[in-house]
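In this section we walk through a basic example: taking a raw amino acid sequence and producing a predicted 3D structure, encoded as discrete structure tokens. The instruction is simple. Fold the sequence below.
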Amino acid sequence: MRTSRIYELFCKWSQTILLFQAVALCATMLLRFSIFSFMQTNWGNLAIINALHPGRNLTMAHSPDTATPYLQGLANYRAGNFSEARRHFQESLSTHLDLARNFMLESALAEGDWEKILKTIDISRLAERIFLVKVLVEHEDRIDTKTQKQYMDMIQADPSLASAYLHLLLSKNLFDEVIEFGAALPHDGEFVQVRFMMGRAYFYKKDYASAAKIFEKIHEQQPTLDNAVWLGKALFNSGRPEEGLRYLETILQQPSGRRYIPYLVDLSVAYAAVGRCIEAKQTFSEAVKTDRTGSQHALLESAQRTITGQCQK
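The resulting token sequence is shown next.
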């Protein structure tokens, strides 16, 4: 009996040991698989991040399948594979909702699929309303009158959307359209940026007097650096150089080394035009030193020719 009991206990103990070994083996295999999957995903992510580096040319036709859907979407978007990019961004909505939705809309816009954009836009999401503006500017002639009016009414009622709409029209040199659209909107309160766009449209049309009138009113309401410089540019070009210079010199109130380069260029060119060449060269020299990345090279090169030509007269 005693021997039988010992044998029975031995068998149970052996079964328990085998069970623990099996569990341990399964756990080890699962851990190895998890680590492998984790490393595989991260190697895929690193491969895409490396390819997306701004200093590299993206030659991949598709992104590694092991990367996250969001990064695969980015890789395909940059490579111009917009349909594939949209599919990946759709899959990443649970992890990158706002960014994924934005890139889905950008991809549809790049494909010229304005109908897809209008179906995808969530009007309650402020960041997505800007795509209404982009659609109306890029595809206005392809949208039916009823839909067009519906969204134009929405844009006209929202100062930020109206301003964005005019900004896009300006970028296409549609100056008359900017003035016509802006004239139908309120000219006070939150719509001050709309008037600012109208002032720029007049300036680009070389109607400097009309631009100056608009910028004067804006500057009275909001005496910011941008408004002061644009007022100065309009006054200077409308035959009021001394007044213009006073506003253009507002840029000098900013800390040295952090002054906006295009505004320094505007001031240096204005100095040269009235024969104040020492100040023109000093201001231009500061602009060159401030451009540490070389991003303003073309602007500075053009300004240098202008200043040299003026000061040699």
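Looking at the output, two observations stand out. Residues 254-313 form one domain. The chain has a mean pLDDT of 82. In the next section we compare this with other chains.
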